[in-house]
Amino acid sequence: MKTIHVGLFGLGTVGAGVVKSLITNEEHIASRTGFRVQVKHALVQSFVKERSVSVPAEFLTMDAQTILVDPDISIVVEVMGGVEPARTYICAALLARKHVVTANKELLAKHGPELMALAAHMGVRLLFEASVGGGIPIVRTLQAYLTANRVSSIRGILNGTSNYMLTQMQVKQVTFADALMDAQRLGYAEADPQSDVEGYDAAYKLLILSNMVFPVQSTLNDIKRKGIVDITPDDIDFASQVDCVVKLIAQASYVDGCVHLDVSPRLIDRLDPLATVRDVFNAVTVSADVVGDLTFIGRGAGEMPTASAIIEDIVEVLRSPRTSVQPLEQHKAVGQDEQVEFLKRKEYYVRIDLANPISNDRINEEMRVSFRESEKVIQIGHSKHQLSHGFLIATEDEERILLFVRKLKAIKCVVFPYEGDKLSILPAQAMVL
């Protein structure tokens, strides 16, 4: 039986999981593919660092060329993260006609098209199932199992760290800072959590999925992005009062030849399939013309879920080493400024923070001045000291919300989409509950 040698760029948490899984399941993989898969070398930054997997000394190298020039190594797995030197190593591997499997969502979001073009030119595979959704097989599903469908939208929870934090804020009624500290203690959040809590990580993943299924080339600049850093326990409480939860939702829609991309917190109905996705789990709902809606839920990160996705890509290379990738049509995506009309939602959740308490009579008066009779406004709650007030507002003119905020002399205002049904069942009028 032929042995396939793999080179590994990185031997951290995920890299160690790949090594352990290939050792544990070597016979099973061989029985399914007809090949033995073994890691020959792993690129590391230190020979003396403690690792969760025991490997012989000759297994490790601090020189990338050890892997890149080895004729026995036909598949390279990149789990280093970051753009450089990962991009340089992947390009070198592709130029050496080695297949590449990567979990690097940031690199793919920023340089994916050029890397895929290089792989196609060299006649090798570039696979990236592990870059989105951890162990959820969403990439393979979109690539191989929905070819008879026209996908109209992708909507999901793509970042496990922010979802864990929002879950803790909901269940334990803790602050954002406490939820972040807990996530860092458990290893879910990095020391610098910006990528997770500001929505960058979800944006990288959304872009990868969008560029796979829509015939339009989008970039990170085309994504309207807002993170969860402004979410407070009041938001969680106000959401529960209208049978909703707060989730960081990533959504890509294809309408009239244009792609519209958005990552932002939203109030979603408790009956929404995404509302029940808790902790570090991810979920993706794909809407297509033939099959309808498909929702995938699973662990979005971690050693073994990510290792599983990487190994499935290795197996895919063994089964189909020459599958070609069709290039995307080079249409321009709709940028943030051009998305305004499409993304201008009629229904919003608004939280207003005040320096001093005010009465409901004052709020009612400012509502009458700020909004038309055809618009709907509901006050859904206020904090104990009446310094934070939550509203649901239905309006096609976001400027009216800003006018309302100014009249109340708010010191802070948080606005994001509302996807429940409380406003739709009300008559057209401004009102306070």
UniProtKB/TrEMBL annotation:
Signal peptide: none annotated. Transmembrane segments: none annotated. Its EC number is 1.1.1.3. Residues 10-129 form the Aspartate/homoserine dehydrogenase NAD-binding domain. PROSITE patterns: HOMOSER_DHGENASE. L-homoserine binds at E190. GO terms for biological process: methionine biosynthetic process; threonine biosynthetic process. It catalyses: L-homoserine + NADP(+) = L-aspartate 4-semialdehyde + NADPH + H(+). Pathway: Amino-acid biosynthesis; L-methionine biosynthesis via de novo pathway; L-homoserine from L-aspartate: step 3/3; Amino-acid biosynthesis; L-threonine biosynthesis; L-threonine from L-aspartate: step 3/5. InterPro entries: Asp/hSer_DH_NAD-bd, HDH, HDH_cat, HDH_CS, NAD(P)-bd_dom_sf. Keywords: Amino-acid biosynthesis, Methionine biosynthesis, NADP, Oxidoreductase, Sodium, Threonine biosynthesis. The active site is at K205 (proton donor). It is an enzyme of class 1 (oxidoreductase). NADPH binds at K105. Belongs to the homoserine dehydrogenase family. PANTHER family: HOMOSERINE DEHYDROGENASE. NCBIfam families: PRK06349.1 (NF004976). This is Homoserine dehydrogenase.
